[in-house]
Automatic annotation (TrEMBL):
Keywords: Cell inner membrane, Cell membrane, Membrane, Transmembrane, Transmembrane helix, Transport. This is Iron ABC transporter permease. It comes from Paenirhodobacter hankyongi. The keyword Disulfide bond does not apply. One of its GO terms (biological process) is transmembrane transport.
Length: 577
């Protein structure tokens, strides 16, 4: 670690930029290397190390011969592959429907289609558990719920695959929608002139152009499913369907840091699966992408008389996939006890008030809010000079680190949490104290993982910025830091603010990192929801989830207000609509 720090500092000093720019570059490099890349590299070194007997690659050999590890790997591959089928089917259908038909309310429907990306996985899993439970507030009154005492059908490998497919469906949706935005109107008009109807145009012209992005989105959904923790934890653990992420959690939770070497090998498997998927995606895009002449993008078909039917069908699908589970979650939060029917007489806010009265839950809210706000503010503070030096000043070191900064976000969260434990479990050099078991290690993990959520939109502003503005200030003698503060920051502020709110939305309910890094006194909201459900307190878990969802919705509305006028392209539910 010390060598990396010294190397980053020397690289910054070699830049020889005036006004302390070299120090800023060194600090940014230290941020990326020390919080993200070095922990991941340290994890890889641990996985390739010898076992207790000193045999080379002994830890990998043990994992390969472990029946539990092989079963978890098989289940991970099977559930992830099944989830891809769900993601591709739903994501492609919704993207084509919303992208090719000029319908009222497309922004609202697009927001709902992307909601699984904004709702934490443990809350989404809990909502579906309540929807299909024997006391379901939605299905029980219709006589469709399982009988009392019957096992929830979602506690199975198929349930894990189904729910992960819904959760990662937005990845396919976004990929297909981006492809639809590149379809030139002239191409569709030519097909119309040739006598083709809308269905034939979609099948023969638009679908082939979208196929590379559909496949790329499918691979990205597979990589995300491999690293998913919330859904396998809430559905797979009670269903006795272990996956790699839950096996890592259970071993660390049961045996502690002494099994770090063994679980590092399991993490290596996750990295390998996700890495192969992302490499395949990159190769596929290069080989199958079809060059299309630039032109006015196709604005969609007018559904005409079919407008009403199309709207009804879309709202019905979105209602079943998203509104019904959330309604079931809300219903569970409002009943006095699990198993009671929700009526006007039985509805109560007691679960909500009891939840808010619990000092541990209040502390978890305070911890999550403090950590997420700190991560958002620091990420924005780093992203602004980082993007300027990388994209405008084209500083060589930061241009290389700009690409590598995505690594902590791309790898499964369980892997990053393990890497943080390996690096920050020993006492920090010079301080003699370890940050493991304190809020600091959670903040470090959030800073490493969520920086790209701010860096990418700010980097987009830097790439689109008129170079003459910065050049004129440079000629006038303004140093780099002043140009960043006076010229670039006002232009990039809306994108940075929107990205920072996305960080808060994501980090506030985060579970994958927190499940392995929290300790007594550092509980987070995501951890408490998981713990309440594991303890059998479904009404308490539902109440806390509803409160968290209300905060997520409020933050989404705030983000929409911030970016709608100045930077709508940073909002996935407005971009391209």
């Amino acid at each position: 670690m010390a060598d990396l720090t010294a190397s980053a500092a020397r690289a910054g000093l070699r830049a020889r930029l005036p006004g302390g720019d070299g120090l800023v570059i060194a600090l940014i490099a230290l941020y990326v290397l020390g919080l993200g890349l070095w922990p991941l590299a340290r994890l890889l070194l641990e996985a390739f190390g010898p076992d207790d007997a000193g045999r080379p690659l002994g830890l990998i050999r043990e994992a390969l011969f472990s029946r539990a590890a092989r079963a978890a790997l098989t289940n991970t591959l099977a559930a992830s592959a099944g989830s891809v089928v769900v993601s591709v089917t739903l994501g492609t259908a919704l993207a084509l429907a919303l992208g090719l038909m000029r319908l009222p309310g497309r922004v609202a429907m697009t927001f709902l289609a992307l909601a699984p990306m904004l709702i934490p996985s443990q809350i989404m899993a809990l909502a579906w558990i309540e929807l299909f439970g024997s006391s379901s507030p939605i299905l029980a009154p219709l006589g469709l719920a399982p009988g009392a005492g019957a096992r929830n059908p979602l506690y199975s490998g198929a349930g894990v695959a189904w729910l992960m497919g819904i959760e990662h469906m937005p990845l396919v949706f976004l990929a297909v929608r981006a492809a639809l935005g590149a379809v030139p109107a002239d191409l569709v008009e030519a097909a119309r002139i040739a006598g083709a109807g809308p269905l034939r145009i979609v099948a023969r012209v638009i679908a082939p152009l979208c196929l590379p992005q559909i496949l790329a989105g499918a691979i990205l959904a597979f990589a995300a499913a491999v690293g998913n923790f919330g859904v396998p934890a809430l559905l797979g653990i009670p269903g006795r369907f272990p996956m790699l992420t839950t096996l890592i959690y259970q071993r660390l939770n049961g045996f502690g840091p002494q099994v770090l070497g063994q679980v590092a090998v399991l993490a290596l498997m996750l990295i390998g699966l996700a890495g192969l998927a992302l490499l395949a995606r990159s190769a596929l895009i290069r080989r199958l992408s079809v060059p299309v002449a630039a032109g006015r993008p196709f604005a969609g078909f007018d559904p005409g008389r079919g407008r009403g039917g199309a709207l009804a069908a879309l709202w019905a699908v979105l209602g079943v996939l998203l509104v019904a589970p959330i309604a079931a979650l809300l219903g569970t939060a409002l009943v006095p006890a699990l198993g009671m029917r929700l009526t006007a007489e039985t509805a109560t806010l007691a679960n909500v008030t009891q939840t808010l009265a619990d000092p541990v839950i209040r502390r978890a809210f305070a911890n999550s809010l403090g950590l997420s706000l700190s991560a958002a503010a620091l990420s924005a503070l780093v992203a602004l000079p980082f993007a300027w030096f990388a994209q405008i000043a084209r500083q060589p070191l930061l241009r290389r680190l700009d690409t590598l900064a995505d690594a902590p976000f791309v790898v499964p969260g369980t892997v990053l949490a393990l890497a943080m434990i390996l690096v920050f479990l020993p006492p920090l050099p010079g301080l003699g104290k370890s940050v493991y078991g304190t809020p600091v290690i959670l903040l470090f993990a959030y800073l490493a993982r969520f920086l790209p959520l701010v860096l990418r939109p700010v980097g987009g502003v830097a790439q689109a910025m008129e170079s003459a503005l910065d050049e004129a200030a440079r000629i006038a003698g303004a140093p780099a830091l002043r140009r960043i503060a006076r010229i670039f920051t006002p232009l990039a502020a809306p994108a940075a603010a929107a990205g920072a709110v996305l960080v808060v939305m994501t980090a506030f309910n985060e579970l994958t990192l927190s499940a392995l890094l929290w300790s007594a006194g550092t509980e987070t909201v995501g951890v408490m929801i998981f713990a309440l459900q594991q303890q059998g307190n479904s009404t308490g878990a539902a109440a806390l989830s509803v409160l968290s969802l209300a905060l997520v919705l409020a933050l989404a509305l705030l983000t929409d207000r911030i970016a709608r006028r100045s930077a709508p392209w940073v909002l996935p539910w407005r971009s391209g609509v």
